[in-house]
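Our consortium's second objective concerns turning raw sequence data into structural hypotheses that experimental partners can test. To show how far this objective has progressed, the report includes one record in full. It was chosen at random from the queue rather than selected for favorable results. The single chain below, 260 residues long, was entered without modification.
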Amino acid sequence: MKLNESIAVSTANVLLVPYDRRHVPTYHAWMEDPAIQEATASERLTLDEEYENQESWRASHDKLTFIVCQPLAPVATAAATTAIVAGSADAPDSMVGDVNLFVYPYEDDDDGGAESGEKAVAASEPSYVVGEVDIMIAELRNRGRGVGRAAVLAFLHYVSRSLERILHEFGCDSGDAVEAKQQQQRTPRLKMLMAKINEGNAKSIALFRSLGFEQEGQVNYFGELKLVLQDLDKAISAIAPEGYVELSYARETQETLATP
């Protein structure tokens, strides 16, 4: 999504920055690990293909991505009250993983037998979408330290604050002019957030449950559990990330950044 291309999110425990071209070599190195490929259901790509992916993710209307980095030092936090300079706090040795939101239309399993008249009424009403959240902490040395939970918590807080704009960008992107106009007239609504997690990944399951996600159904054909969060605002109000602040992600030199 273009929404977060110039936004960084800082908390006491983590820094999130938009996935930029400068991050691709490190991201590509992570994805060379067969274990990460399996855990993320990803295919091995060349570096050039990874650069193409980064560009397509930025332009995509249905995928919101941040790179997870180590938190800013207290001194840096005080100095960066308005902006993060690209390539400083998100240098390769500060990068930890990524966190994503995939947005897609909600499909009600119970409406398969709806009559045409009922479908026409439904088409005139606001549509619903699902937001699927996933988190990857790439290196073993950064796992088990609470970084993943801090990243998801900060990410959910950003999604909650930006939800209207996220849904607007998703709803207004269509190749069909008529459909795009119809979508603008009925901005979609968020039905739920969801995470699909391998049943053997006990730590990830515990992470999402600690943030209010609850299991729905049984393990699917792919060995995954589906965890859902129905009330994002309620969950966020109950667990606010410490020191949350949104900063400008500046792709200029430090000298050009003037604090108002």
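The partners drew two points from this record. The radius of gyration is 19 Å. The longest strand covers residues 95-105. Both points have been shared with the crystallography group to help prioritize constructs.
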